[in-house]
């Protein structure tokens, strides 16, 4: 693989490089866990890689706790997510998704931005963050920032809303409501335990008050061209007692989740199998309350 590498150190330098590359073939590189594999399969002639690994900007490299949530810079690695105490206690679904991402070695270098911008329907971090109703901050070469929901960031398989002069800068996750109990998990189904791409994934983050579900977020992966936030299923749960969900209610919830899916058959699983697994794991959320 032959390509030119430019390594800006500051955001100002980065924006200048992006501007200079308009009309040319360029890609962003960070942890390179996905990019090098892509370029090996499909080399790009006269490619320039804008290397983000040496950026010194603290916002792009850190997790910042704010009054109304947390801001995660796109250069934050999956390993950093797994070791962050606030994420582990307040957003378990994201902690679990990061912990299940590839191997320990890859988690050391794989970044939030790389995982999201790859825009895989099977993206672990993307599924968890969509369930958390995350917002994206997108930085343009002109220095302006626009904010959209992460759900709307994905437009197709390996496609995003990013324009050629834009960069995903950070992800904002809103705070939990004060005093609420959290029920938050990431379920990933694959054909083997290690280094697995999800056949089906389900992320959910519920907030409870006196066992009543007051806020619900859930997303599904690997069963549609993009990661989907299952809004109607989430609304259906509001006001229900989590520990007393009936079998009928659990089945209705699972059916509503499944209505967002449009799975395909491929070498890893059939569309029928994906639909069945999604239905079953959606019901399994309430298994403890059904025992």
How would you describe the overall organization of this protein?
With 291 residues, this protein is of the alpha+beta class. The protein has three domains: 4-51; 58-174, Uridine Diphospho-n-acetylenolpyruvylglucosamine Reductase, domain 3, CATH 3.30.465.10; 181-290, Enolase-like, domain 1 (2-Layer Sandwich), CATH 3.30.390.50. It has 14 helices and 14 strands. The protein has helices at residues 11-20, 35-41, 58-61, 78-83, 85-90, 92-99, 104-107, 112-117, 124-131, 150-153, 231-237, 247-258, 271-284, 287-290; strands spanning 4-6, 26-29, 48-51, 63-66, 69-73, 135-140, 145-149, 154-156, 159-160, 166-174, 181-189, 200-209, 212-221, 228-229. A hairpin with a 6-residue loop joins strand 13 and strand 14. The protein is globular, with a radius of gyration of 19 Å. The N and C termini lie far apart (56 Å).
Can you describe this structure in just a few lines?
With 291 residues, this protein is an alpha+beta fold.
Question: What is this structure's SSE topology?
Answer:
Elements: E1 4-6, H1 11-20, E2 26-29, H2 35-41, E3 48-51, H3 58-61, E4 63-66, E5 69-73, H4 78-83, H5 85-90, H6 92-99, H7 104-107, H8 112-117, H9 124-131, E6 135-140, E7 145-149, H10 150-153, E8 154-156, E9 159-160, E10 166-174, E11 181-189, E12 200-209, E13 212-221, E14 228-229, H11 231-237, H12 247-258, H13 271-284, H14 287-290
Parallel strand pairs: 1-3, 2-3
Antiparallel strand pairs: 4-5, 5-10, 6-7, 6-10, 8-9, 11-12, 12-13, 13-14
Helix pairs in contact: 6-9, 11-12, 12-13
């Amino acid at each position: 693989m032959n390509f030119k590498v430019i390594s800006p150190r500051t955001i100002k330098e980065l924006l200048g490089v992006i501007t200079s590359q308009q009309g040319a073939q360029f890609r962003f590189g960070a942890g390179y866990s996905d990019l090098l594999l892509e370029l090996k399969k499909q080399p790009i002639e006269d490619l320039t890689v804008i290397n983000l690994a040496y950026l010194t900007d603290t916002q792009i490299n850190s997790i910042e706790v704010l009054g109304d949530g947390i801001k995660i810079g796109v250069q934050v690695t999956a390993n950093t997510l797994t070791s962050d105490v606030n994420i582990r206690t307040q957003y378990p679904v994201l902690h679990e998704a990061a912990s299940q991402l590839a191997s320990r070695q890859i988690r050391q270098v794989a970044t939030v931005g790389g995982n999201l911008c790859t825009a895989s329907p099977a993206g672990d971090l993307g599924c968890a963050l969509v369930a958390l109703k995350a917002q994206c901050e997108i930085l343009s070469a002109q220095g302006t920032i626009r904010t959209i929901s992460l759900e709307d960031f994905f437009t197709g398989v390996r496609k995003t809303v990013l324009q050629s002069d834009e960069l995903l800068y950070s992800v904002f996750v809103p705070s939990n409501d004060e005093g609420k109990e959290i029920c938050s998990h990431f379920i990933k189904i694959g054909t083997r335990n290690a280094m697995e791409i999800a056949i089906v994934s389900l992320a959910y983050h519920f907030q409870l008050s006196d066992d009543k579900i007051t806020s619900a977020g859930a997303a599904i992966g690997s069963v549609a061209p993009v990661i989907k936030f299952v809004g109607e299923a989430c609304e259906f749960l509001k006001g229900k007692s989590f520990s007393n969900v009936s079998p009928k209610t659990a089945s209705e919830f699972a059916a509503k989740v499944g209505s967002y899916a449009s799975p395909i058959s491929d070498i890893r699983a059939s569309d029928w199998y994906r639909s069945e697994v999604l239905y079953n794991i959606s019901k399994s959320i309430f298994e403890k309350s059904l025992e």
